Amino acid sequence: MQHAETANRPEPARRRLMQFLLGGGLLASAASFLYPIVRYLVPPAAVDLGGDSVVAAKVGELKVNSGKIFRFGSRPGLLVYTSEGEYRAMSAVCTHLNCTVQYRSDVREVWCACHNGFYDLNGRNVAGPPPRPLDSYDVHVNGDDVVVSRRRGA
Amino acid sequence: MMASAPEYAREDSPHRNRVVQWFDERFGWERLLAPLRHKTVPVHKLSYWYFLGGMTLFLFMIQVLTGILLLLYYRPSANEAFESVQYVMTQVKFGWLVRSIHSWSANLMIFFAFAHMFSVLFLRAYSKPRELTWLTGMVLLFLALGFGFSGYLLPWNTLAFFATKVGTEITGQVPLIGKPLLIFLRGGEEVTGATLTRFFGFHVALLPGITTMLIAIHILLIQRLGMSVPPGQEAAWNALPAERREMPFFPNFFLRELMAWYIALGVLGVLSAVYPWELGAKADPFVAAPAGIKPEWYFMFMFQTLKLIPAKVGPIDGELLGILGFGLAGLIWALLPFLGGDRYGRRQVFIRGLGIFALAYMLSMTIYGYVVAK
Questions:
Q1: Are A122 and A97 in contact (CB under 8 A)?
Q2: Is A12 on the interface with B (CB under 8 A)?
Q3: How confident is the model at residue B14, as a pLDDT?
Q4: A39 touches chain B (CB under 8 A)
């Protein structure tokens, strides 16, 4: 969109310098306006107040062949009391699309209702769309408490 | 000097872009844009006043943008509002900047809206055929005040809490509709979390919707009627037609406007960085109002007037008299072009006098409120 007449056009070198300075200045200031906005859009990291272990249930709270969702930090965990009388604990976040899984006492497996994914009691994905096993946690009984803790180095 | 169509708009131009052509074939794009290309802006010694409306529009756009950004973190409830604003100010990167720009830009927008209104009044740009432009502009000014009033409460701090209590209480004094209006505004008898939820809705949905629509009408009217030339200038040009000067709106005037907006953005950045907006203390309904409490500066002249009116003026409540007076004045003000008659008539002199009086009154009451009556 240059309308300048050829006759009074300044010599190209000077014009190029002016264009560079003007364009560069505008570009730099535009960047300085956009940078804070982009930084603002990124939410500050939330502090996960959950430690490495949590009391998931009391002894006797769960019936045989049943499960319970408990709070582990900011995410849900699943505690299962198997028919053999063993405690198993794993992440309750399905590895497929993040739904929360549940224990199905009829098939004795962990089931995700969203897309019909199945995991066994060790958290291994055995059927349906889940691509990976659930993270499994250590469980030990401390007095009256069923304590679940993250596996070191896992 | 009417500008001919720019080169890129001509059919045979090599600059005519394929995308433009694609749209043109489907929408008649060029014909749609033609009025904008032909629009001119008169050039005279008072041309700078033409920038005020555009500046108000620019600040409104800043409000929309920063408002949307604030919505990402703001939580409109009595338990969380203050904390969420605090979070924006202290935890979110550049949150202090975004909020401060929103507050500064809000205040500047109202300032420029008032300046625009008075310039239109004194340059007689409001009279026939521009009555509707003035009327939509006045409604927009009232909406801007509504934005200010509703937005002020949202951080849920002490000052905002009491400002809202007082402001809505004043509304409640209006005869007949006052009480229902107060209940409607507060969402109950008292200023509570329910009030906050309502004000939030007004501030981010109702007012922006109406305002955007009215701005569109306002601009369409300006586009349709062209720029007003002050009467003195018009007379001089009519006597000497060769002296008439104009510039194309696009791109000549538009680029000048962009420059002004660019500077305004810089000023906003500096103000926000040097004087970031304060948050104050969280509102507590069971704490006494702090001493020296006062409203936003653009409500100051009304606030100060109400303070000066005695409790009883004859048989009438002083407060009520003040409110009815301001209501009537606002109504007359909005209808000025219909009362002013001919653009060159004698009533115009009266209206100018009225304008000077109003400006002087508002200025002196505001100064009185801030300096003398501390």
A1: no
A2: no
A3: 55
A4: yes
Asked if A1 lies within 8 A of B6 by C-beta distance, the reply is: yes
Q: Which of A1, A40, A43 comes nearest B94 by C-beta?
A: A40
Which CATH number is correct for A53-149, 2.40.40.20, 2.102.10.10, 1.20.1250.20, 3.10.50.30?
2.102.10.10
Closest by alpha carbon to A130, among A142, A116, A148? A116
Token digits of residue A17:
């310098």
The residue written with tokens 């949590």 in the block is A54
- C-beta atoms of B97 and A36 within 8 A: yes
With 0-12 / 13-18 / 19 or more C-beta atoms within 10 angstroms meaning exposed / middle / buried, residue B304 is: buried
pLDDT, average across residues A66-92: 93
- How does residue A1 score in pLDDT terms, banded at 50, 70 and 90? very low
Nearest to B200 by CA among B257, B138, B155: B155
DSSP state, A61?
A: S
* Domains within chain B, CATH numbers bracketed: 15-226+248-372 (1.20.810.10)
Nearest CA in chain A to B7: A1
Residue of A nearest to B259 (CA): A26
Establish whether the linkage from the previous residue to B251 is cis, with ω within 30° of 0: yes
Q: At what angle do helices B254-274 and B51-71 cross, to 10 degrees?
A: 50
Contact call for B15 and A39, based on CB within 8 A = no
pLDDT digits (tens, 9 = 90+) for B270-285: 999 999 999 999 999 8
pTM: 0.87
Residue B4: the pLDDT is 52
> Which among B353, B355, B336 has a CA at the least distance from the CA of B126?
B336
Q: How many CB pairs under 8 A join A and B?
A: 32
Q: Which of A29, A33, A40 sits opposite B92 (nearest CB)?
A: A40
**Arithmetic mean of pLDDT over chain B:** 91
